[in-house]
Design goal:
This protein is mainly α. Helix content is about 50%, strand content about 0%. It is extended.
């Protein structure tokens, strides 16, 4: 089911065959996975940054 949802979403947004994705069960998990994904991307793109800061909104 997850693969179908990702494929349908990619089609709606004109994605190509390289589009990847996954589903989460809620907002908190989605936010944590977004932070982890960007952290991993940042480590690959800018290895000289050892201890990045997270800026977060609190209300």
């Amino acid at each position: 089911m997850e693969t179908e949802v990702v494929s349908m979403t990619a089609a709606m947004l004109n994605g190509d065959r390289e589009v990847v994705g996954f589903l989460t069960s809620g907002g908190t998990e989605s936010n944590l996975m977004a932070v982890k994904t960007f952290r991993d991307y940042g480590r690959a793109q800018r290895p000289h940054i050892r201890r990045p800061n997270i800026v977060s909104y609190i209300s």
